Amino acid sequence: MKRLGCVLLAGLLSASLVNAQDINANWFTHFEFDGSKTAEAADREFEWGESALFMTGNSGRWSFLSEATFQSEKYRDKQFTLERIHVRYEFNRDNAISFGKMHTPVNYWNDNFHHGRYFFPTINRPWSFSRFVPIHEVGVRLSGQSPMVEGVGYDLVVGSGQSVGNDAFSKGIQSYTASFNWAPTAQSRTIVSYYRDSILSHQDSPNHHAMGMEDHAGPDVAVDSNLNKDIPYELLSWSLHHEGDAWRTLTDLSANRTDSGDWNWAAFQYVGYHLNESLSLYGLLDYVNVSRSEVHFAPGIAQRYGLGVEWFATNNISLKVEARSEHGFSAGPYGDSKVLEAQLALGF
After folding, report:
1. Could you give the number of structural domains in the chain?
2. CA distance linking residue 117 with residue 279, whole number of Å
3. What is the rounded CA–CA span in Å between residue 112 and residue 106?
4. DSSP secondary-structure letter at 278?
5. Measured CA distances, 299 to 132, 161, 216 (Å)
6. Which residues contact residue 43 at a Cβ distance below 8 angstroms, ignoring those fewer than 6 apart?
7. d(CA 195, CA 178)
8. Quick one: pLDDT at residue 19?
9. How far is it, in rounded angstroms, from Cα 286 to Cα 302?
């Protein structure tokens, strides 16, 4: 039964492809140069990054979206991955249901930027994405707009949870997401969300990093006495995005906790200024604070901040260059690091 959801999804997707009236395909890739000591030690100063094939199509009220990525086995275990594949049905102009593998609507970044770096405001995702943010989810999503208050929308998701990966509902419903958004103007949008999941046998989870990190957080790090149990995970998020003629800003704040313990905090701030239609200057601040009593994620504090420039050479090619300072356990084995990083992103 655990593969039933994927089989049904594949059948519906195939039917949609056969009858689709409008199919679009786009390809994205990027190349990076990283001048940090961490990149040098890992032999990753020059890197061909992740490539993504992004496809959409629609037929009447039905539509589909799929996103598959490729990256050399030098940089990740699986060269080919299916990041998203879901089918959507519109009840009416304002309400729809989707099911399949999707991005969770927990914050603005995850709900609006896919794997093509061409669209990222900075070279990298916020640090919270590698630790706390549930990027993908196999589940069912209801979304729509309020008929009573203009600019107010909602997203409600029930999912398989992060622990079971792509095995659709093999352990039943494990995760719940409630996300609400408000667009007071055409240039601004804010999102507030709550996400709850169960981390199954959390010691065996690939995201379990609490043990063995005492040197980073001090001798009084708490040790979980029952590491193999299932524990609850909660995430509260708030985002604000604004894009005007001259300024673009993105704020992502979140708090999370496991096993009803102390809260961990993360904050990301981007501020960009358009010098002209093709050239922008920007600054970024990224901060993570994990409680010493945390039992699943590695305790400690990490922060990075920097300045960057983005140049759109054409409508399909962008170049970003960032100078950053990174501090804390997430800065790699060197602890503190000065980074000069460049990224050439392409989209066709």
Report:
1. 1
2. 17
3. 11
4. S
5. 13, 23, 7
6. none
7. 7
8. 56
9. 8
Q: Can you give the pLDDT at residue 203?
A: 62
Dihedral angle, C-alpha 153, 123, 244, 317, nearest 10 °: -110
Phi, psi dihedral angles at 39 (to 5 degrees): -65, -40
Check residue 251 and give its pLDDT: 98
Show the tokens assigned to 161.
Answer: 């949870």
Burial class of residue 218 in the structure, from the number of CB atoms within 10 Å of its CB (0-12 exposed, 13-18 middle, 19+ buried): exposed
The position carrying tokens 């949609």 is 16
Beta bridge partners of 130: none
Q: What is the 3-state secondary structure (H, E, C) of 225-252?
A: CCCCCCEEEEEEEEEEEEECCCEEEEEE
| pLDDT value for 204 | 60
Is residue 104 within 8 Å of residue 84, measured between CB atoms?
A: no
- The pLDDT value given to residue 337: 83
Sorted by sequence, the CB contacts under 8 Å of residue 177 that are 6+ apart come out as 104, 105, 106, 137, 155, 156, 157, 158, 159, 193, 194, 195, 196
- Please, what are the averages of pLDDT over each run of 10 residues along the chain (348 residues)? 46 51 89 82 83 93 94 82 94 94 96 92 94 92 91 96 84 95 95 95 59 34 57 96 96 95 96 97 96 88 95 96 85 67 96
In the block, tokens 């993504």 appear at: 52
Rounded-to-integer distance, Cα 274 and Cα 307, Å:
14
CATH number of the domain where residue 193 is located: 2.40.160.10
Read off the tokens for 123.
């070279």
| Residue 18: strand, helix, or coil | helix
Q: Residue 210's pLDDT is what?
A: 45
Residue 241: which domain range?
A: 4-347
Alpha carbon distance 84, 69 (integer Å): 10
Confidence at residue 104, expressed as pLDDT on a 0 to 100 scale? 95
